[in-house]
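Collaborator request, handled under Task 6.
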Amino acid sequence: VKFAGPTTVASQVLQRSSLLFHPATREANSILLLEAAATGVPIVCSENVAKTLPQGVVHVTFPDDDWGGAADSLRIAIENVNQLTNASQQAAPVIY
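Structure tokens returned to the collaborator:
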């Protein structure tokens, strides 16, 4: 796991990423989530945030404010990263 820190070109960071872990239970500006989806990067996010995602975005969810569940969902995503990435890359052109 690597915290990428601030950037002005999120797509460059996302292209080097296997997953995007979004731990917040709310999302005021979902542009990063859309950029991840359009780049073909699977997302791990809360159920509440998942409700804001367009159809077709590949994601694994965890219950809001359940940090144990977040860890479990992240583990599941890591264990299945190849399948999730393949699905994300197939969906990316539509999301873009």
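The cover message to the collaborator said: "Strands lie at 20-22, 43-46, 59-62. The mean pLDDT is 91. Please let us know whether this matches your experimental observations."
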